[in-house]
């Protein structure tokens, strides 16, 4: 006895077609705004001389962390410049920054609400589990019919892919605030918003920063994968090397991605340690 096949793929495809046709005006508006932001930030970073941007990044690493990170960042960035990958690195950094900002702006309110509402918490946790176990390549599929080929689709896929850790860690941080502190705030007559702003958020900030760190790392990995749908940057260099069977070029671009990831990771971790102290 054979059971009929559930046409799940047909249902999803039909839903995507309906959404793209019904909300094309909205998606075009989002696409224009996003592309303007990408071009603006990218042009601003490109406008700076290579040496000045390098000095700014190194100074930031020194100020946020220590001289060891600053020296390592300087050596890594000089290597990227020497390999001729400076412009692709800036394009990748632009996509990561914009995607992370959008993801955090969406994730923080959702995480705070889920921490304060038990009903929403029970609803959103399985959704986050589903999102975090879904293969990264799948997120590229709905991006194309909504926004077409290019950097906007990469931002869309990257935001969806990198958002769950920020939501999860924000919720976790607020829910782990000691009950005694919350009760003390209640005893002093603090309102719900005062408890959130003055007690729960400051106490949970290190955990929230850990979630933002994970979001940045996931955004960087997804931006590289998104080269398959036309995203510029180091990912496109890797993809071009694969297509042309040039492993050396691919490894050079991969090393540049690793350097950028290490700088972003160490900077955000240093910020997190500062918040703890």
TrEMBL record:
Q: Keywords in UniProt for this one?
A: Cell membrane, Membrane, Transmembrane, Transmembrane helix, Transport
How is this protein situated with respect to the membrane?
Answer: Multi-pass membrane protein
Q: What is its main location?
A: membrane
CDD domains from the UniProt entry = TM_PBP2
The ABC transmembrane type-1 domain is annotated at: 89-268
A GO CC term assigned to this protein in UniProt: ATP-binding cassette (ABC) transporter complex
Q: Name one GO molecular function term.
A: amine transmembrane transporter activity
Record localization: Cell membrane
For this UniProt entry, which segments traverse the membrane? 51-81, 93-116, 136-161, 208-231
Coiled coil ranges (UniProt) are none
Q: Does the keyword Transport apply?
A: yes
Q: Which GO terms describe its biological process?
A: choline transport; glycine betaine transport
- What InterPro entries does the entry give? MetI-like, MetI-like_sf
Similarity comment:
Belongs to the binding-protein-dependent transport system permease family.
Designated name of the protein: Proline/glycine betaine ABC transporter permease
Organism this protein belongs to:
Halomonas eurihalina
Q: What is the lineage of its organism?
A: Bacteria, Pseudomonadati, Pseudomonadota, Gammaproteobacteria, Oceanospirillales
């Amino acid at each position: 006895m054979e059971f009929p096949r559930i046409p799940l793929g047909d249902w999803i495809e039909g839903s995507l077609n309906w959404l793209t046709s019904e909300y094309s005006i909205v998606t075009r508006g989002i696409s224009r705004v996003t592309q303007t932001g990408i071009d603006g930030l990218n042009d601003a970073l490109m406008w700076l001389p290579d040496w000045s941007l390098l000095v700014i990044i190194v100074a930031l690493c020194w100020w946020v962390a220590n001289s060891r990170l600053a020296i390592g960042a300087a050596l890594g960035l000089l290597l990227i410049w020497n390999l001729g990958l400076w412009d692709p690195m800036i394009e990748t950094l632009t996509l990561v920054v914009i995607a992370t900002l959008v993801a955090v702006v969406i994730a923080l309110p959702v995480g705070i609400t889920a921490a304060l509402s038990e009903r929403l918490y029970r609803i959103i946790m399985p959704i986050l589990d589903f999102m975090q176990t879904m293969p990264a390549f799948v997120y590229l599929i709905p991006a194309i019919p909504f926004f077409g080929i290019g950097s906007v689709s990469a931002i869309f896929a990257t935001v969806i892919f990198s958002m769950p850790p920020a939501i999860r860690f924000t919720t976790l941080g607020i829910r782990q605030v000691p009950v005694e502190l919350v009760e003390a705030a209640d005893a002093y007559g603090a309102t719900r918003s005062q408890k959130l702003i003055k007690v729960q958020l400051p106490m949970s900030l290190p955990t929230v920063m850990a979630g933002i760190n994970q979001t940045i790392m996931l955004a960087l990995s997804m931006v590289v994968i998104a080269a398959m749908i036309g995203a510029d940057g180091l990912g496109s260099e890797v993809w071009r090397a694969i297509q042309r069977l040039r492993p050396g070029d691919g490894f050079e671009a991969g090393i540049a991605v690793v350097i950028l990831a290490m700088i972003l990771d160490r900077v955000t971790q240093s910020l997190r340690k500062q918040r703890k102290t």
